[in-house]
Amino acid sequence: MVAALVTAAGACAGSTEQPADPPASAAQGAGPSEPGPERPGPRSSTSDSEPRPSHGNRRPVTLGFAGDVHFEGDLAALLRRPGTALQPVAAALRRPDLMMLNLEAAVTRRGSPEPKRYTFRSSPRTLRALDRAGVDVVSLANNHAVDYGLVGLRDTLRAVRRSPVPVVGIGRDATAAFRPLEVSLRGTRVSVLAATTKSERTARVWGAGRDKPGVAAAVDPVPRLLRTVRAAASRSDVVVVYLHWGQEYESCPNRRVRQYARELSRAGADVVVGSHSHVLRGAGWRSDGTYVGYGMGNFVWYNQNSVRTGILTLRVRGHRVVADAFTPARIGADGRPRLVSGTRRQAAVDDWRRLRRCTDLAATPPD
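Above: the chain's sequence. Below: its structure in token form.
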């Protein structure tokens, strides 16, 4: 886990000082095995006009991803003690150099619920809990971030400004909502941005605009997202796009999702990871070298028990993802994930790898 981060999307985050746990063996499905020395805190790129640096002496860095999180219903009680809310998986969340997930809720106690079947909100303590657990970047680019109207949106933006963990995918206008977080990890520049493709109404009503607060909505056409990726690629070593996309409860990516991955790859994205489907999906390499994780499923979620989840860890050298690993977990009756251990661990990793069969992805990077 990084020691400090700077925010994008107009947020103002503090820093943390937490020791990093050494990664477990990738062969065991836990994470890349080169921990390296103590990591310095990432820094913003100093200038958009600086050339993209060479990578001859770059050491590998690790990027971690989990799926959808909220603290709805009975899970709200976990926030009474933010420092231990995700204790069962905190050590695993701290292992990657940079750890990211999606917060599926408006951060507010006020406002009126939107006219939809499910509305989610959470206390500002949520962001503190995620930070304390080892999360380095949070996406709010989803179809629940504005579940409590304009009042809730204003509260959410206020919470983002005060958040100890950087938040991307939401902002006071489109420029802020699409702005990447830019960090340096042991000399490797990483740009991280987030957007939602769900749904047409989200884009029309709560998508950020020129003078309008909201989420980074990338419903067809997606020129702004692609322009942002191209610009990020011109000044960063690695570009990560975290998308809220796809059809719920379908484990295989549909044609539109694959098209998004293809267009983002052509624009310069090195890693594309998704959520929203509420189930795990396959992951691997496109033939052009971009790594795609089609769906991370739920991670902290109510009304579930023994549902598969986990943490995806990628080892990156230069622009390339050179190895992947999956740390399997299951959501318990209390809504929190717990790591799978013993003989069930390798079986869970094998199950995750089999999800790749219905994708256009390969198990190893192209030569």
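Residues 26-39+57-358 form a domain with the Purple Acid Phosphatase; chain A, domain 2 fold (CATH 3.60.21.10).
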